[in-house]
Amino acid sequence: MYRVVAILIVCLFAVGTIIVLRSPSTAEIDTPQPQIQKRQVMQPEPTTPKKPGEKRASFAVITDGGFRKFSAPMYHNLSPDVYIEAHYPNVIHIMKDGITWRQFFATLPMKVSETCLTTGTDETFCTNANGTITFYLNKQKVVNVLDKVIQDGDELSITYKAKAAPVTKIPTKQQ
Fold it and tell me: Can you give the residue ranges of every domain in the chain?
């Protein structure tokens, strides 16, 4: 009897280990939790004092409902003029006047255009037959936002939503 219980415990442990090891990494994509509101995600951290002349804005990239984190070091402190930091990576620190959204994204290891987004891990999302990229600046849908100068307190959201695959009806026998 003890032998059967011991074998069962070992088998359950092995299956659990395999499931954990085969689970997709959450290093860059995190499924949004219902209790987290976009406002909380987008707001600059209020307890960090601004440096003289600094402006702050925030951004979010959401692909198919998943909030993309920019916590990997490859995104941090890449330009003295405009950058993000590890402790709050969706807050943009703007140290020079006249910086546009396009200039900010050009400092990161990713590509953003009016019609496509290529992430730092080379995933590409484009407006085409498969889905749509939409830009929201301060909660308003905008076109050509990339050439706008980033203002203190701006909130930019880039969303990609895949189009649902058409439902194919399976014919049933008529009687």
Answer: 29-162
Q: How many CA atoms lie within 13 A of 125 on its CB side?
A: 22
Q: What is the pLDDT of residues 102-136, one digit of tens each?
A: 999 999 999 999 999 999 889 999 999 999 999 99
Token pair, residue 36, equals: 């987290």
Q: Where are the alpha helices (DSSP H) in the chain?
A: 2-22, 38-42, 101-106
- Please report, as a single letter, which amino acid is at residue 56: R
* Closest C-alpha among 136, 109, 107 to residue 120: 109
Q: Is the pTM of this model over 0.85?
A: no
Residue 13: how many other CB atoms lie within 10 Å: 10
